[in-house]
């Protein structure tokens, strides 16, 4: 049961039972409930799903180069949401963001819920909760092509059907991992390191279930020799005991995350990731009738997945987890210098490495944010599809 007054704070667990009750009983209602999504792009047509539909966005101009895009969501066959319909919208925003790889929000309170037609004051109250930069450096790509929207709709429809069909306890786990991806996309502009951490953590939560720890537990090649020596040497016996204890406590999480990615989003699937400028190119083509997408092709300085062997790919993926751990335990940000890479997959980065011998310069390959986001989405979705036979 949710709080009587949410008081401008989100407890995501409260949203989950509203978005999908354990038992769905459709209630025909001539007065549909309206909730609102706050997006970072325009939707120009209705998106209809099994239990609800997302209407075209209302654009509200804000000071400077900012605007807000408000999408009314209609629940024609509503659940028993009582006064908690805005919690439905918060959960919906998480799934929408996970699937589209775009930031999305919903109001933290439900004071404007239920009202199908909003006056300008109410629209502005919603608008200020998610201002979107529409021009200048760092502006959001607010116009999407029909091709992009069609792809989004198909993936959203597939994901909603899967979430409503899987066993309830697995639905709860799936939503929490999707929420981490959602929070990563929301926080990317404020704190890139935190966003990166959240993306890797979203995969870790699923990898712990999908890849067993026992697959990585193995004896040291010299363990039998140490055991024999320990029969006559108490110090070696004690050290061997401590070694075994330490090994038993290790969860091998980094290795399990790498294996999870290699199984559920292998490098040959990374080619499904669209170029950062692909939407802009298809939108321009739809407007002008002219195709001008030469810049989407691989450039001489770019690295693609096929440029690496499996050992190198595994090293790149392991570094993902290393950077995540350094952010968690040392407060160190990942070494990326460009949060909005124009490369399709990887960035080349030169870093300074400190050691006992001094400083050295190293060139490293980093998967850019959009690739890590894509891997998180695809691996989690593929795992759920395989587990529940969708």
Describe this structure as you would to a colleague.
The chain is α+β, with helices and mostly antiparallel strands. Helices cover 46% and strands 14% of the residues. Strands 1, 2, 3, 4, 5 and 6 form a six-stranded antiparallel sheet that branches. The chain has a two-stranded antiparallel ribbon with strand order 7-8. The longest helix is centred in the last third of the chain and has 21 residues, at 310-330. The chain is globular.
Count of discrete alpha- or pi-helical segments spanning 4 or more residues: 12
Average pLDDT, rounded to a whole number, is 86
Largest pleated sheet: 6 strands, antiparallel
**Estimated radius of gyration:** 24 Å
Q: Helices, strands, pairings?
A:
Elements lengths: L11 H8 L7 E13 L7 E2 L4 E2 L3 E4 L4 E13 L6 H16 L19 H8 L4 E2 L12 H20 L2 H20 L4 H19 L12 H8 L3 H16 L3 H12 L13 H11 L21 H21 L15 E10 L2 E10 L1 H19 L3
Antiparallel strand pairs: 1-5, 2-3, 3-5, 4-5, 5-6, 7-8
Key features?
single chain, 390 residues, 8 strands, alpha+beta, two-stranded antiparallel ribbon, 12 helices, six-stranded antiparallel beta sheet
Short description:
The chain is α+β, with helices and mostly antiparallel strands and 390 residues long. The protein contains twelve helices and eight strands.
């Amino acid at each position: 049961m949710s709080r009587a007054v949410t008081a401008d704070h989100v407890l995501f667990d409260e949203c989950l039972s509203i978005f999908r009750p354990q038992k769905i009983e459709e209630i025909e209602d001539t007065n549909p409930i309206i909730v609102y999504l706050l997006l970072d792009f325009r939707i120009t047509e209705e998106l209809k799903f099994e239990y609800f539909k997302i209407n075209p966005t209302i654009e509200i101009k804000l000071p400077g180069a900012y605007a807000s895009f408000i999408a009314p969501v209609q629940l024609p066959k509503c659940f028993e949401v009582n006064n908690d319909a805005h919690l439905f919208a918060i959960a919906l925003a998480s799934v929408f963001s996970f699937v589209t790889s775009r930031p999305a929000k919903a109001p933290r309170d439900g004071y404007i819920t239920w009202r199908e037609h909003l006056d300008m004051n109410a629209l502005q109250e919603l608008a200020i909760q998610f201002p979107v930069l529409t021009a200048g450096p760092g502006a959001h790509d607010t116009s999407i092509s029909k091709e992009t929207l069609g792809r989004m709709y198909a993936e959203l429809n597939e994901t909603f059907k899967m979430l409503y069909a899987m066993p309830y306890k697995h639905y709860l786990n799936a939503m929490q991992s999707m929420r981490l991806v959602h929070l990563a996309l929301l926080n990317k502009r404020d704190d890139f390191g935190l966003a990166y951490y959240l993306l890797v953590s979203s995969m870790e939560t699923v990898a712990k279930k999908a890849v067993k720890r026992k697959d990585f537990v193995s004896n040291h090649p010299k363990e039998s020799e140490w055991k024999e020596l320990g029969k006559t040497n108490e110090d070696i016996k004690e050290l061997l005991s401590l070694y075994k204890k330490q090994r038993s406590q290790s969860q091998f999480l980094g290795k399990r995350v790498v294996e999870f990615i290699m199984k559920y989003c292998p490098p040959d699937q990374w080619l499904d990731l669209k170029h950062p400028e692909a939407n802009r190119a298809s939108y321009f083509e739809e407007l002008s009738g002219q195709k001008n997408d030469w810049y989407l092709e691989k450039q001489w300085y770019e690295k693609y997945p096929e440029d690496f062997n499996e050992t190198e790919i595994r090293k790149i993926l392991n570094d993902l987890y290393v950077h995540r751990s350094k952010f968690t335990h040392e407060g160190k940000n990942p070494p990326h210098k460009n949060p909005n890479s124009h490369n399709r997959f990887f960035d080349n980065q030169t870093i300074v490495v400190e050691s006992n011998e001094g400083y050295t310069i190293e060139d490293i390959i980093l998967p850019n944010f959009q690739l890590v986001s894509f891997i998180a989405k695809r691996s989690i979705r593929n795992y759920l599809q395989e587990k529940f036979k969708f």
